[in-house]
Each structure stands twice: as structure tokens, then as C-alpha cells.
Amino acid sequence: MALLQKVKGFRDIFGEDINYWHMAEEKIQSFFRSYGFKEFRLPVLEKTSVYKRGIGETTDIVEKEMFTFTDSDEMVSLRPEGTASLMRAYIENNLHNPPGIKKYYYLGNMFRRERPQKGRFRQFSQIGVEVLESDAPLLDAEIIGLLYNVAFELGLSDYVNMEINSIGCPTCRPKYKDDLVKYFSSHKDDLCDDCKRRLETNPLRILDCKVEKCKSIAKDAPVILSYLCDDCNTHFESVKEYLSMMNIPFNINPKMVRGLDYYVKTAFELVTDRLGAASAVGAGGRYDGLVKSLGGKDTPGIGFAIGLDRIVELLKDINPMEDKGTDVFIMAFDNESLAHCLKFVKELRAQGFIVEYDYSLASMKSQFKKADKTNASYAVVLGSNELSENKAAVKDLVTGEQELVQLSEVINYIKNKLI
Ligand code: ATP
Ligand code: MG
């Protein structure tokens, strides 16, 4: 029979890697909560129209990266990102009522049919935030600062840079777009086929192209910052001022546009040079027109998403973690000692320790081997000699030291050693 294999671009995640995932997911979530964010759990499947209207018909994601299929006459897609789906949920659940600032975070797998490579998979995990109902530039600074501080908390701040830009709004962007089209049209023959098409459909996306030829042409293209209207300009100046007040380091990258259509004004990316071509660890921006374009009230919003697969890759490189083994391995050999063993197991687990025992009640020698395999710190041996004195032998498996301890004192003894 042919060996069953996973689908291209999808991964099994297990073993030591899981420790990094837990660490990142737990730290980032508790950090988000300290900023007042509440978790939002979104469906993995949405009607394709949510993404077509939310992300934009001419974006890479919608044009070629979605896993889409028909479900009883309806086109549905696996989610390629969280924002459009969260806006759909915000509108559908009437969350603008009562009015006031809303702060949500989400965590989950996303799906994009991209060419798999280092840091780029077809199923990947994002953790992200969205804030609705405020257009204050101080909020933009807070959100950019939050993304930077996540990297700081994880010990990654020396390996990342925060790049920011303003990509204008429907008032000032059209003139910029016109000039961009003029510029790229004069280099049309040298652009890749995708960018030749983008010239007609979505010229800003050419600036985001990863093909070398296109990148070098884009170097001399006009920049959006010289086209900003007064409103966008004042907003951007305030964001920069607040970031400096917050001591958040940033660079201005006037060529950075984001791959999704819904952004206005502030756009930002946290980048690293340690992951090859997959350089963005997290990215986001302001999307004031999005809720309205999906059929809701005119609502300002801003958010970002962090790529957890890339965070884990960086952590493994930079911050190696030791695998945490079992705390205590308890050894029973017959039903009498098993009764004591099960009591200890239950009590120690309830106190948060990692506790294991041997289901086959094997010989002492074999159980010491098993304890070794689980990397246990302590063994509690409930042999008949010890039990006849109402005692257990507690062995430190690192130093090899052993002590006889009263059964009633075993839990306290272990607690004192391990805390
Ligand atoms: P890229 O320029 O690398 O394609 P993107 O602009 O498409 O990124 P976003 O849609 O902004 O990415 O998603 C936010 C974050 O999610 C990215 O910064 C990245 O860390 C992560 N991410 C995006 N696509 C993938 C993928 N295919 N595999 C792993 N992580 C990804
Ligand atoms: Mg992409």
C-alpha cells in the first residue's frame, strides 16, 4: 500500500517545537489581554464573498491563493486571514451597539495556496488584534508599539525592525496611483508578467513584488509620502511623534505598501533579515473604510497580524529552550503500593506538577529506565520494605541522592524540592 503523506505546504508540528508554540501563544495572548483585548473566535470557513469584498478582488490572496470550493451551490473559502472575517462578524452581530472602542484579538490557522519555502506554508498560524471605532493617531502608535513590544517580550527585539509608512486615503491616493502608472508604464517591458497585469488592475502592488527586476525598477518610483493630503499628513506626523514619546524605534519605509486593498493612512511591518525572503514577522495598518465597504456603518479600524510560524522559527534560532521533563515519577509494584501511588499522583498533579507512573507495574530496574526516558527530576519508590515502615524512598535523579521520607510528608518534601 502506498504510504500516506501530508498535503504539500501543510506540516505536522510536534516534539520540541511544541514548547516554542506554547511559549509564544501564551505570552502573546496574556500580553494582549493586559492591553484590554478580548478574544474573538472566528470560523475557519467563510463565504468567498467575505474575502473578495474584504481583501479586494485584485490582491494576490484573492486572485490566486485561496482554497475555495463549492458547498451546496455556494462558494466558500478557507480563511486566508482574520480581518475580513472579523469585520463580517462585527457587522453581523451588531457589535457597534453600544458604541465605543472595541478591542479584539484572534488566534488560529490561516490557509493560502502559496509556493512553500522557509517561513512560508499553506497552513500557517496568525495571532492578531483589531481595534474598531477610533481614528485617533495615538491608537495607531499604541498598536504599532504593541507589535514592537511583543517582539521585545519574546527576546526578539535585536533581530527585528519596525517599518512604517502612510499609504494615503481615497482623497490623495488616486493622484499618486496615476503617477505610479505613468512611471511603471515607461518600464513596462522589463516588468514581470504579474506586474504587467498589476499595472492595469492594482499598480501599488508592483511596489510589493518580490521579483528582482521589478524591485530594482521600483527603487526610483515616486513615493506616496510626497502626495499625502493634509489630513493624512497631520495624522502621520502625530503617529511618529507618539511613537517617539513611547520610545518605540521605527524606520520610515516610503515604498512599503501592504498586500491587502483595505488599508488607509498608517501601514507597518515588523521585519527581520533572519528568515530569507519571508522577512515580515507581523504586519498591519489602518482600514477606516473596510466595515462600510462590507455593508456596515462607517467605522474606523486598525489592526495587525503576527505570523507565529515565523516567530517560532526565530525563537528556535535565537533563544533555545530546554525541553521540560516530568517532575516526579512514582513507582508502584503491586496493588498495595499502587493505592498510595495513585493518591500521590492525584495530589501532585492537582498542584500543577508533571507526574507519571508505570502502567505495567514493572520491576524497579525497568521503572528507573522509564523514569530516565521521561527526563524525570525525582523518583518516589514505594517498595515493600519502605512501606512496612510507612515510608517512601525519594530519589533525586540528577544527583542520585536518596532519602527515606514518611508517607505523610512525601507531598511536602517534593513541593519544597521543586518550588
Ligand atoms: P508576505 O509579504 O511574507 O507574503 P503578507 O503581506 O502576505 O506577507 P500578511 O497578510 O500581512 O502577510 O500576514 C501577516 C503575517 O502573517 C506576515 O507578516 C507573516 O508573518 C505571516 N504570513 C503570511 N503568509 C504566510 C505564510 N504563507 N506562511 C507563514 N506565515 C505567513
Ligand atoms: Mg503574502
Query: Percent helix among the residues?
Result: 25-40%
Q: Which spans have pLDDT < 50 for at least 5 consecutive residues? A: none
**Strand order of the biggest β-sheet:** 1-5-6-11-10-9-7-8
Taking all residues together, what is the mean pLDDT? 95
Q: Would you mind describing this structure in some detail?
A:
With 419 residues, the chain is an alpha+beta fold. It is built from 15 helices and 16 strands. It has helices spanning 17-34, 48-55, 60-65, 83-92, 137-153, 173-185, 193-201, 212-218, 230-245, 290-293, 308-318, 335-350, 364-373, 384-388, 410-418, and strands at 38-39, 45-47, 68-71, 74-78, 102-111, 123-132, 161-166, 251-252, 264-271, 280-286, 301-307, 328-331, 355-357, 378-381, 391-396, 402-406. It has an eight-stranded mixed beta sheet with strand order 1-5-6-11-10-9-7-8. It has a five-stranded mixed beta sheet with strand order 13-12-14-15-16, with helices on both faces. Strands 2-4-3 form a three-stranded antiparallel beta sheet. Helix 2 packs across helix 4. The protein is elongated and about 90 Å long. The chain starts with 16 loop residues before the first helix and ends with a helix. The model has no long low-confidence stretch (mean pLDDT 95). The structure holds adenosine-5'-triphosphate and magnesium ion.
